[in-house]
Batch of 3 targets.
Target 1
Amino acid sequence: MSLSIQQQLAFSEAVEHGIINFADVLEKVEIMKNKEILEQHEQFCKIWQATDGRYKTKLPDESKANGKKMVAKTCREDLEKCIIKYYKSRQEQKENPRTMKALYPEWLKYKAVETSKANANKLQWVWNTYFANSDIADMDMQIIDVITLKTWFLNVIEKHKLSNKKYKEMKSVANMLFDYAVEKNIVSANISRSVHGISSKKFSEPDKKGTTEQVYIDGEIQLILEQAEKQYKKTKNPAYLAVCLNFALGLRVGELVALKLKDFSESSVEICGQEIKTYYENADGELHRSGYCVVSYTKTIAGKRKLYLSERAKKYLKMILKHNECNGFNSEYLLLNEEGERLHEFSVNNVLRRLNRQIDTIQKGNHSIRKTLISKMIESGQLTNEEIRMFAGHEDFSTTAKFYNYSTVSWDKRTDAFERALG
């Protein structure tokens, strides 16, 4: 309730002359505020005494599935104090958003606009995993120092057994939140970016996959192609042909399912788009998957490229076009499901998992097809580094050489090569 200017003057005069005790007034105002908080809370959830004698209620908690968390105290007075403290803290955060938790919702919306909703969804997962229910998220960002934050990082590393890569993923969210706080003039410096010197001994060793888990070796390519053709004849599911085609193109799965008829010429194909996941924002500001769409850009600038169509690629392209024609499909896209609509990446991934089981090999995804094809191109010695880089859609050949260079021949079949090299 606000007072008029005349009422404010009269009140000040009464306090000045000792007619009204100001401390008593403040105490009564605080009591009224607390009473109002408790009344509003009971509209959200009642307070009750459980069979164990404790007093219980539920407070709002966005991290819980039902949006509530249970709170219990031995006496009602202590529970009411807990309720009042909770709501006052929330109000303070709204009025003065200087904590990471208070800043997070608007920062996430900003990142969705600055980058993409897909990226914001990844950041949301990192936040919910490491930050959402932590003490550091509720601290005033102005009083967090390097030691406090570094100690918290060390505790998270130990608790979650983080590898160096996972730690950097977690720390990047803190970095970006403090960057945002600097830009909003909430803090003067980014404390998170000043955290250095965490020993490598603190990190867990990531599980390293062997070559047989990364690429298809020996005769596995032929086996999987034969099995895919067999399954296509049996089921008429074009996703099997999509797998075969990709053993000649080595595309990211999102690029594969975004191929359009106009992208093809007699001897080449232009890679100029990809499928991405779409998201919607619920009433609480959380992002959730809503479907897929095709965009006219690829993962990187170098991702837009022109690829040579090998005889294998032409064979499976012809089979896919014949499939579409026999079914009377008319679409701008190449890969279509049984209803004539564009195939999604999960359809390709599903049949590839099935094929792996059928040829009795380790489960390998579409990225393994990509790694296999690029590794074979390097092994062949027939192409320049620049040609292989362009085919892979990488910005630098060092990426290709570091992450896409595997032997596609098993250890047992490499003995002669070792003998020649060592001899």
Target 2
Amino acid sequence: MRKQFLIMLLISSLALSGCGYNTLQSTDEQIKASWAEVLNQYKRRADLVPNLVNVVKGFAAQEKEVLMGVTTARSKVGGIQATPELINDTEAFSKFQDAQGELSSALSRLMVVVENYPELKSDTHFRDLQAQLEGTENRITVARNRYIKAVQDYNVTVRSFPSNLTAMAFGFHTKPSFSVDNEQEISSAPVVDFNRPDRDRK
């Protein structure tokens, strides 16, 4: 009886492996790890915003509208519960992406304003924040690309035969990914280097 059970267990294991079950599990775990890193880098950026706004305010307090825009955008980002489960909800994921996009746009507008304040650009504290922001934007791009690749591999498995049958049987569903207006936004981080010549600025 025990021998028959072991044989059945072996056959079941081979069947699941051949139908993509193990691939579904491994790619799902890769998505979770990639998503955790995306959240980590976005949080790092959000944490930089208050200090950045305060430093700019010290030199350019009259730029209230731009400063308020950054603060409001950060507040929207903070108001979204970016949990691991968010990647299983297309609508929630879209709201998360929109909020992060608003913060990116607000920061870009702030960087344009900074160009009008040479003393701010030369401030040591500001330059340190600038370097941290630039590094964080680069890490966000890398993390997003890894997540996009992980989701692509997983979704292909979920949709392909015969692994799609396994996916349906065990409740695996496709997951949302990041979308951008153009491919260049995926491959390059926003420009936050204030020392570049005008021809390199966006």
Target 3
Amino acid sequence: MKILFAASEAHPLIKTGGLGDVAGSLPAALERLHQDVRVILPAYRHILERLPEATVVAEFPVPGSPEPVRLRRATLVKDGVPVYLVDVPALFDRAGGPYSDPQGRDWYDNALRFATFCRAVVRVAANHAGLDWAPDVVHCNDWQTGLVPPLLIREPRRPPMVFTIHNLAYQGVFTRDTFQYLGLPPELWSMYALEFYGGFSFIKGGLVFADRLTTVSPTYAREICTPEFGAGLDGVLRGRADRLEGILNGVDYRVWDPGRDTLIPHRYTAHAMQGKQRDKIALQKRMGLTVEPRVPLFGHIGRMVEQKGVDLILDALPALMTEDLQLAILGNGEARFEAAFRTAAERRPGRLGVHIGYDESLAHLVEAGCDAFLMPSRFEPCGLSQLYSLRYGTIPVVRRTGGLADTVVDADGKSIRSGAATGFVFDEPTPDALASGVRRALERYRRPPAWRNLIGNAMRQDFSWRRSAQAYLALYRRI
């Protein structure tokens, strides 16, 4: 099949979150299934610097763009996936990130930037870009591509469309004045189209007009149809529930596997675990923790925002620090949480190590060197860290929500007897529930044969991208 995969970021070219991982891995997995898949991205300055060989293959105007779109083409060397880059220097050739300036503020013209990107995607999807290539299906992702379905559906001959929700909390909501400034078709200003509480929503365009909707886990697909998780769009999603399904994200085991990981000092496998203990010592040294190989070490990696439950970790610290354990925290985010973790680490030298920022090699070392991993998210569309933890034999302690509920099997009596248990799951988003989950993990850790069985169960799990790609390919064929 010919598949056009539209996204606003893709690893390794540019990444701010889980969307970047998916857009960097799913097309490659589809390619390995012998599909003709091509990725289309905005031509951010950072991407053009990484792909200087990207050549112009088409040029065309789109409504509202300050200059004609130059469509460039390159190939991802690692996977051989063709990439189209929508090059509009006035909109994308900037310092800073894909969505915000160097100071972290949203770009003032994000609506114009991504409306222009969507219109360019429509030109390619409708085979009006002079490429002599017409996709059989268009796969759009998150709000930055949300205008593609309502614009493409107007084409008399158009491919079917899939729209994937990676995180419904980010919706691309702008004012009515912006809607008019962008010159969008007037009939799209409707509660049955893009209008959203007096403004308009990019993501609503994808939810209303795509042929099929997916999100990144089965549980999250159910959750977003409820007021608690639907972010004001639960009614729209309930109305399209027969077109909505959850397909779990995958993991690139070429990168995240302790047996081949080049970013950790000591590699290991489920049958030869000695390297994990040495990685634990290396992590303790790097995080300023007391080197005590027998003390259980818990890790956490993530954005320091309430969604990820970092406030629950902070509030649980007094209870956790009464236990014989250590904590290694890696992440950044809201200044109040960063400051609180720094202060907490100063008060607990040798027991709590905190690194503010993101460091890829340190992230791999946390996954390899920890005994257990904390993910107390308030909501989690899919989550990737718990999938990495399973492969690294680092037992997840997670809240039962979204993809965490779908990927971690609680170590209760039944699952332990059947050999299905892979972690510890708690229900309420409270410090006490988190602390209780940690205590359950500690109780099992103190029984080495039982802990080794849990590690074996975890490391046998298969969340490869091949499985996810096969599910998406089946969906494409159905439509």
